[in-house]
Design goal:
The structure is a single chain. By secondary structure, this protein is mainly beta. The protein is 12% helix and 37% strand. It has helices at residues 2-15, 54-62, 305-321, and strands at 29-31, 36-41, 72-78, 82-90, 96-104, 107-113, 127-132, 137-144, 152-159, 174-175, 180-185, 209-215, 220-227, 233-239, 245-248, 259-264, 270-277, 286-292. The strands form four sheets. It has a five-stranded mixed sheet with strand order 1-3-8-5-6, with helices on one face. The longest helix has 17 residues, at 305-321. The protein is elongated and about 70 Å long. The N and C termini lie far apart (145 Å).
Length: 322
């Protein structure tokens, strides 16, 4: 009888798909150290979001591009206050893509989608880079570009060498001299996305930038942005609380620059100048020049105050002599 039961269980095991432990978000593979490397497989993965709510669908599909019918595998990562990068290389010539989420499995929020195709190598080499806050939980999702794209892949998660910048947010900008100062940067890879809610300035949720504060002189203020690399950068001037967009440019390339933003500043008013990228990958280099010179005062007539005093003196002497 026992042998019969064993035979039945053996048949069931053969007929049951080889489901992986990290087939869904709740069973995500826990990553504890870096660099991390392992081979994965989505061949037997089930549909990840069969009963997605509208909110969850919007978070995973509209922002991270993951379809409801996607079949993928999951990894759970605890932040260490460093930039992390997850890279996937296909093994079976399968087209993959990755996405980084934060939040809980039933309330995922898309943090970083990935590039999905490398046209130079004609292979999918999706990469997701993000800043992992200390102690915060993140979920990495690996899936195919289409429902038929399933197979083996190689995953590597590593720490990036650059560290967070101090002036990558509105609360701690670098102080510059509005009258005469030039800022040169190699890049701002260490900047963290701020998700600024300033619609008129066109910031993207994934874009990063550098913040500079300056005080208005009451005269014409010139800020010149020179893009030195192949990135798309935007120059914006915000209120001191970064709540109001005062002036901004469209995204500029090397061919569009140098570009000068000119406006009349209010004396004593604090401003924030921001150089931000069009995407997460657009991080410089650039030169930013501040220049504010006193306006040339044009006399309303040809008579100066000194000549007026002299004329009055002559009139007074004439009256006295009479």
């Amino acid at each position: 009888m026992t042998s019969c039961y064993c035979f039945v269980f053996f048949i069931i095991a053969l007929l049951t798909p080889n489901l992986r432990a990290n087939d869904d978000c709740d069973g995500a593979r826990i990553v504890t150290s870096f660099p991390f490397q392992e081979n994965g497989d989505t061949t037997d993965a089930t549909v990840d979001f069969p009963d997605a709510t509208e909110t969850l669908y919007n978070n995973v599909n509209l922002t991270c591009g993951i379809k409801e019918s996607a079949r993928g595998v999951w990894y759970r990562i605890t932040g260490n206050n460093r930039f992390l990068q997850a890279s996937v290389i296909d093994i079976d010539n399968v087209r993959f893509k990755t996405a980084i989420f934060q939040g809980s499995c039933d309330d995922l929020e898309c943090l970083r989608p990935s590039s999905s195709y490398n046209y130079e190598t004609e292979r999918t080499q999706p990469t997701s880079t993000w800043f992992a806050e200390n102690g915060k939980t993140y979920y990495l999702h690996v899936t195919g570009l289409s429902d038929s794209d399933v197979g083996e892949f190689s995953l590597q998660i590593s720490k990036m060498t650059y560290k967070p910048l101090e002036n990558d947010n509105c609360d701690s900008p670098s102080q510059v001299d509005a009258v005469d100062e030039t800022v040169n940067t190699i890049n701002f890879d260490g900047a963290r996305p701020q998700r600024l809610d300033v619609p008129d300035c066109g910031f993207h949720s994934f874009s990063r930038g550098m913040f500079f504060s300056f005080t208005g002189t009451g005269y014409a203020q010139n800020i010149t942005l020179t893009v030195k690399g192949g990135d798309n950068l935007e120059l914006s001037v915000l209120s001191s609380e970064c709540g109001e967009c005062i002036y901004h440019t469209n995204f500029l390339t090397k061919d569009d620059s140098p570009y000068t933003l000119e406006f009349k500043s209010q004396i004593g008013k604090e401003y924030i100048a921001v150089v931000a990228g069009d995407s997460f990958e657009d991080t410089g280099p650039f030169t930013l020049q501040f220049d504010s010179k006193k306006a040339i005062e044009t006399p309303s007539s040809g008579v100066t105050s000194g000549s007026v005093t002299a004329i009055l003196f002559v009139i007074a002497i004439t009256v006295f002599m009479r």
